[in-house]
Amino acid sequence: MDHTRRYERLRERYLNGGLDRRSFLGLIGAAGLAYGVRTPFAGHALAAAGEVRFDGWGGVVSEAFRKHAFDPYTAKTGVTVIDGTFGGGDEYLSRVKAGQPGEYNIAHLSGVFDYARYHDLGLSSELNRANIPNLDYVIPKLVTVLSDYSGGALSAVPYDYGTTGIAYNRKHISDDEAKAKGASLLIDETRKGKIGGWADWRTRIWMAALQTGQDPNNATDMDAVWDAIRKHRDLALKYWGSGAELMSLLAEEEIYVTEGWSGRIYALQEQGHDIGYVDPPNGYGWQECLFVIKGSPMAECEELLNFMLDPATSIAVAEGQNYPPALDPQKVDLGAKIPTLPAFDPTGTLSGLTFANPAYWNGNEQEWSKTFGRVQKGY
Amino acid sequence: MATVETREARQPWILLAPALTAVALLLLVPLAFIAVYSFWLRTATGADIAGFHTDNWAEALSDPFYRDILLGTLRIAAITTLVCALAGYPAAYFIARSKANRAILLLLLMLPFWVSYIIRTMSWINILGVSGAFNSALLAMGVIGQPIQMLYNEATVILGLVHFLLPFMVLNVYVSLEGIDETLEQAANSLGATRWQAFREVTLPLSLPGLAAGGLLCFVLAAGTYITPLVLGGPTDAMFANLVFEAIITQLDWPLGSALSLMLLAILGALVALYNHFVGMSQIARGFG
Amino acid sequence: MSGWALIRIWTVVVYLFMFLPVAVVVLLSFNASQFGAFPMTGLSLRWFGELWANEAILRAFRVSFLLGALTAAISTTLGVLAALALVRYDFRGKNLVSTVLIAPILVPEVVLAVALLLFLRFLQMPKSFALLLLGHVIFTLPFVVLVVQARLVGIRRDVEEAALSLGASPRQTFFAVTLPLLAPAIFAGMLFAFTISFDDITGTLFWKPGGVETVPTQIFAMLRNSISPEINALGTVMIVLTVGLPLLGAAIARRLGARTR
Known about the structure:
The structure holds 3 protein chains of 3 kinds.
Chain A: H1 3-15, H2 21-45, E1 51-56, H3 59-77, E2 80-85, H4 89-98, E3 106-110, H5 111-120, H6 140-149, E4 156-169, H7 175-181, E5 195-198, H8 201-211, H9 222-235, E6 236-240, H10 243-251, E7 257-261, H11 262-270, E8 275-278, E9 284-292, H12 298-309, H13 311-321, E10 354-355, H14 358-376
Parallel strand pairs in A: 1-2, 1-3, 5-6, 9-10
Antiparallel strand pairs in A: 3-9, 4-7, 4-8, 4-9
Chain B: H1 2-37, E1 41-42, E2 48-49, H2 55-62, H3 64-97, H4 102-109, H5 117-128, H6 133-141, H7 154-178, H8 182-190, H9 195-223, H10 227-232, H11 240-250, H12 254-288
Antiparallel strand pairs in B: 1-2
Chain C: H1 2-28, H2 46-53, H3 55-88, H4 94-106, H5 109-123, H6 129-154, H7 157-165, H8 170-199, H9 202-207, H10 215-223, H11 230-260
Helix pairs in contact in C: 1-11, 2-11, 3-6, 3-8, 3-10, 4-6, 6-8, 7-8
């Protein structure tokens, strides 16, 4: 019985004197409670067919997705898109791990190592590339990096890329100095108390490898790496944990130098802050992908991915989040703003960027993330 | 007669049934899952192996790293609780004794809760930061020539915690003060006691359950916090809940995270047992009085 | 007399401390620029405009409000009943029972969150709003029990016994004597439950079904990009709604009262 009818019937009984006022109000309250709990959310509770769940970073990104991809997709296919958000990749993986098969469908994941982590946990699926014609626009290198890891099959499509470079306050640090010192600026003793850094073990180890003159994808002297991380810790004012913190620490001049995400630093520059950004040699390059988790309705997901890779959608999202799209600039006209974004590669080969080697990083994840947890806290 | 007695004996359980059912189903059973999990092992790929391994417990109990941070956490929680009690009691007393504005004062007390916790915590950066309100004001007045670095140390963590927990303390103390008959204090006065004596001999002892409840809440919540040290702490100001959070979320090591959280749970549980013991005692004492 | 003056000054200081961050949030919601808090560069209503246009935050606000209200209702009911049993009856295992009832706040929330999810997966139950609600009830329950219990201890039994001896039934006594005496505690418990539910982030992140956002999770998702003063604007609106309106109401009532007198 639907709620309106139930209410009508109750009201009738009340008017006829079958119910005293108190129980009438009580029943209305109970009905309201049941309505409030069930109806608006009942659809989400049961992941029935005709529905795809997408989880991303929220904010401008998901607004762009909604407007340019989800709504047209729903209009065309009748399949609704439920969009969820997460605050970070690790937290999201915990949720997926604790969730049920089919509960989560598509996720906006970071780096190749996330792809590898999900694959190693048995969460990958196999996309039928024929159903995603827009995949042809994507920079080939970004695709092969993923499919190589999962033995030729593809469980995700690349979506955007960026770098983690050195961001500095130009009032206090000159461009020449930043260029010359690169990652070593983060352990410059004269800047004690004015240094920041991301509380992320991968980034810290990567930067420490650069500081100790090692290959970030194959550091041989880990003791030196940990010492460099300790040194950075002692000189640093603060480990930041979100883009918001990164931006406010720099903008409010709490710190003069930190490594930073290219898109966020670009946003600061856009707002008129005098912040410089440099990618040191072998700087940390990364890509983000749209990953389809095992147990998802594949045909629907493939169609949605195709919508999201549509150049119009990709470009709108890229302009919103300040990270270049994974589209090949040789094949697609990316407009005026994107070529000005940091990390943008007009050749479409991405030969200037160094990506994390997933086997190397994930193989050491358990040990290093734990060691970093201790070093970070003063041990 | 026997039926009345059995009914009398059954009554508390009827009252308790809904709450206990909820806690049992939504907390105790899930905690049992966690307890089982703490004996599993995590592999390098991230999958967990079922079985009975005591490795996590051995690590959690023997490693000085965990012990040091646990002790540090308890210390921070204790300082926070003390500051809350000292700051909160007089305020609660004032609210309880000011007839006219009581409702408004209580409403105002809860006001900071309407600004999201994260934003509230982050707003301390706008107050104490280099370009924050304090530094700007001091600079403008010419008191200092350079901004002072005030943020990101243990003191700011405690400051943030006190700000978060003070209303819990005040409300608890207020609730118990409000329940004390004011004429008792007046009676003591008329019997020749000074106001201070009357307060110390009559009101303070009667309000102790509220103070204890507030203190317990503050301590437990402070000991379980992880966002405040993340936002307001420096690199080395981590607390125990950060370790649990990192084990579970960042390192995806649920088995170890389970062992660590059960450890924290055991210590806080012991504290509650103490609280029960003493509050129970005071109730008995009142029965005799 | 001077003791009372000291207490008054102390209370003012405590309130100033409590309001400082709130004042900053309200002030910055009118700030023209996004960063570089003080000195402020200019006044603007821009963030309120953006808030009004931000459908996602407004939706999250409605969800949070509904969730908070339902949580408060359920957990206060459960909590008051349990507190009555704990204070008014002597039975075996009482200490154990009260420890169990406090337990939800002893467990770090992230653990509670994961544990409950593991249990649900075991039961093969999908996530739903009802689960989110139950989760909130569980960790607000201890607050209600503690607050109400502290208050109940303070209510002297002889008042109730007087009512009983004057011929009132236990039920009458409860509604006519105990409940009015309990009202402040019930109110405080509900307020606690509502605000804690309204402000919760960790558990909500894990329990919320797809497509459902509360204000804190919405803010959390926005933090990756940057802090938007829209959030400050939302805080300002909340404060105006929760404090400004009741204050205004009280003032009007007082004025009307004065006039009729």
